[in-house]
Specification:
three-stranded mixed β-sheet
Length: 352
Amino acid sequence: MGGRRGASDNPPNRFERLRYAEEPEGAAGPAAEDSPLRTRFFRDPSRRILATNDSPDVGFDTSLNPYRGCEHGCTYCYARPTHEYLGFSAGLDFESRILVKEEAPELLRDALASPRWVPRVVALSGVTDPYQPVEARLGLTRRCLEVFAEFRNPVSIVTKSGLVVRDLDLLGELARVDAVAVYVSITTLDEQLRSAMEPRAATAARRLATVEALAAAGVPVCVLVAPVIPALNDHEIPAIVKAASDAGARCMRHILVRLPHGLSALFADWLERHYPERRQKVLNRIRALRGGRLNDPRFHHRHRGEGPFAEQIRALFEVACRRAGVADAGIDLSTDAFRRPLAPQLSLFAGT
């Protein structure tokens, strides 16, 4: 998939002392800077597929990520620094060096079949988008959904891709037993801003059409107005909420932009390249929400912020939800239908 990227370069990995500069493929010399960056895919050898956390403010304690890194290239993505644990950069590497967990469906089936598994909601994926472009070719997320449907284990999906409607058959099967919810992220209705900020993600129109298709199929769908970036897209909150409600969203949530570790410098660089006249205002507003810093990692503060501007955003969102007649809440799922399918018995005469 060609086209634009969210980051402009690869800043140093915060864990690495040495840094190397890779020359673009198929080019040498000054012209190399104009060569397109090709996405590479690597096998992820993980032998466990379900990750757990004890964070009190994320809404789930178990998650599954079929991919590490994300080709959507969203400039603000809080997951970018996780790529540094792999020896990569949070910049271009995050969106062009994607790790693929090829055995995710088989590992998931083993985990759910274990007598130690206690049925609970699994977030798909919680870090990177399970429906990023390569999913159309590999189908790992769909195969994981087949396992969730087989066991009727509840799953909560977060995506900004229209590809999720490909799996309406499985989502509908899970919805009939209250075992699925889809959260569609909509950051802006301004296509110019969207294309600069989320260069390889679906348009807002495509996301709203996705909400409509999910709702029409009886699949519970919630819209995440996320991330809210003060002085950049916060004024769009009422319009996004109304458009999502008209499309059939059952509920809404909003989350403020988070800039952990080196992401703050990446985001500031993006502002300088695309919105230089707003750069200082946006960064100052973020600092006003974060106690004078560009990031506040404290639980219960990192998603909502604090101070007058945070309260103003929260009030604007709540009023928009009341006017649209939608709840400012998530979707509750049930584990009541969970089952462990019986393993096929071998014939007594096998091999004879």
